[in-house]
Amino acid sequence: ESAGTITAEGMTITIGNERAGSTVSLSVEKVWSGDTGYENLRPESITVQLKRSASADKSNPVNILEAVTLNADNNWKYTWPKQDRLQSDGVTPYYYFVEEISVPSGYKVGYTNNDGLTEGGKITITNTCITKDYAVQKVWDTKGISGVTIPTSITVKLQSLSDNGATWQDVSGK
Length: 174
Known about the structure:
- This protein is mainly β.
């Protein structure tokens, strides 16, 4: 980037020159998946870091700017404008990607379009709720007991520990 100054009849005009396409904008969006009805499990915010590497394999990355907080107030989105597209040789591109700093408990993280952007664009971070399936089988042991009537069905309530293991809480729904 260079600038020039022109002075004419008491007026000074400064002209800035920037090579076309010398910067890129990079966006990130957070998406939540598999937790419909359990949105209360989501944290109030997450932190993401923009990283840049000089090579396509994303080796030796450096953090660019400060980490950014995504939350409902910014619709879980952020854009980093005007990041250098090319390295100092003016030919070799930089490779950009993001990293979620701390993945929320109960979720696994996945990334879309995060393999080293060179021309700008949007990276999507998807946190998918980790679920487990449980099979329940009730076995009635009536050996040696006469006159027992076994019901045709029973109700099972799934519970989990909450409050750091202090209380049991019903697990609803699914």
